[in-house]
Amino acid sequence: MIASADLRMSRKLALLALTAASAMALLGAGPADALPYRDTLTQWADRLDAAAVELDSAPVQASTRIGEGGLMKLGSSGERVGRLAQRLAELGLLPADKVSEVFTVDIDRAVKAFQLAQRMKPDGLIGAGTRAALDRTPAEAAALMRQSAVAMRSFRDTAPDNILVVNLTNQTTTLVRGGEEELTMRAIVGRPSRETPLLTDRITHVIVNPTWTVPPTVLKEDKLPNLRAKGTPGIQNAIVYLDGQEVAPETVDWHDVTPGRVRIVQQPGDHNALGRFRFNLTNPYDIYLHGTNEPRLFARELRSISSGCVRLEDPRKLAELLLQGTSVTPERIDRLLSKQQPQWVKLAAPMPVQFVYWIATVEADGAVRLHPDIYDRLDDAPAAMSVPAPQPGLLPGTTPAAAPALSPAPAAMPPAGRQPDAGRAAMPLDKSGTAEKSADKSSV
């Protein structure tokens, strides 16, 4: 019986591999050599349109909706599990006689086969990402592909040659310089309740060894309750201030203390929530890019879990690339890391940053990926894809565009009621070592 089950599973995986190969043939093989980023975007948009046409021609089939709800996995039961099983049967991944309202081993295998075909982590878990992929009809998938193709072409036609692109839907960050892609890494973006806005901005400083000031919402909802219950904020190496004065938190009765009287600042180090690098932007919502003290989170398939800012998988590499050609070499970065205080380094020229919302993307081998609509922004995404022209004289070799200038930096307004959190931390130092006028603010 075990051998028979393994054989059936092998046949299913072989069929899925054949289907994937056919899709790749439709889309075309990935280029052997890296293309200029604008050419890459053109190729991606063309492939998305071709895949959408193919989906349009597919016969209409039944499509059971699983619907939103909690995580489902092996051993779960209920009506949503039944809808999941029915959907897997419709996709040809589960025999009709195996449909059940109990999450069985057969359903688990079918889920993993679907995830493999979708280029997802084959963990058998039905979270938001896998559920959204299962719920999409071919017509909906085609519409998403066309929408992303339009957005990519708009970006291609207006973007400067030097830009950092943050795609919120697949949680990646890409550095483009001189029109060439230099670096792409995984990122972590804001959770649905604390969305990362679609910003047009620029990086002005790299901060080595940043402090982190707990933002107001996190302080009110998480850290002040900790202080009241345990006499500690639950943050390693943090300084607690009450009415502007440093206090020993265990000596204070926090029950009658309002959040506005409290400030908590975590000191620099590997334990710091921002990691060892922070990349300052200029928007008024205190959104920026930074490292993290929890690198394990980058292994997640869906990484919309921050409080609004963007965490980077390899912030050290980005810092080195942004500071190339300056006196701040990798060796000097090592020396800055050894210091106990935040070290502010101003970029020779600000780096434009664009946050985009491309739900459909193309893998290196030509396969199309559809990502969850994490913020329900599909209706707003195309209009938010404009990219600014660089400031005159700032970025040699950039392409002018009829778009807002970078200074002052415009920013998309976050949805009503979902303003990113902000806090206060150390003042930046200019080259003379004196404090600049703008305060360092924090939102993780």
Task: Give the gist of this structure.
By secondary structure, the chain is α+β, with helices and mostly antiparallel strands. It has helices at residues 2-27, 37-56, 79-90, 105-117, 128-135, 138-158, 216-230, 315-322, 330-337, and strands at residues 163-167, 172-177, 180-190, 200-208, 212-213, 238-242, 245-247, 262-266, 277-280, 289-290, 304-306, 310-312, 343-356, 360-362, 368-370.
Q: H/E series, N to C?
A: HHHHHHEEEEEHEEEEEEEHHEEE
Largest sheet: 8 strands, mixed, barrel
Which stretches are low in confidence, meaning pLDDT under 50 for 5 or more residues running? 1-32, 381-442
What is the radius of gyration? 24 Å
Secondary-structure content class? alpha+beta
Helix content: 25-40%
Give the termini separation: 52 Å
How much of the polypeptide forms β-strand, as a percent range?
15-25%
Number of strand elements = 15
Per DSSP, the total helix count is 9
Silhouette: globular
Spatial strand sequence of the major β-sheet: 1-2-3-12-10-9-4-13
pLDDT averaged over residues:
81
Would you write up a description of this structure?
The chain has helices at residues 2-27, 37-56, 79-90, 105-117, 128-135, 138-158, 216-230, 315-322, 330-337; strands at 163-167, 172-177, 180-190, 200-208, 212-213, 238-242, 245-247, 262-266, 277-280, 289-290, 304-306, 310-312, 343-356, 360-362, 368-370. It has 444 residues and is α+β, with helices and mostly antiparallel strands. Strands 1-2-3-12-10-9-4-13 form an eight-stranded mixed β-barrel. The chain has a four-stranded antiparallel β-sheet with strand order 5-8-6-7, with no helix packed on it. A hairpin with a 2-residue loop joins strand 2 (172-177) and strand 3 (180-190). Helix 2 (37-56) packs antiparallel against helix 6. The radius of gyration is 24 Å and the shape is globular. The chain starts with a helix and ends in a 74-residue tail after the last strand.
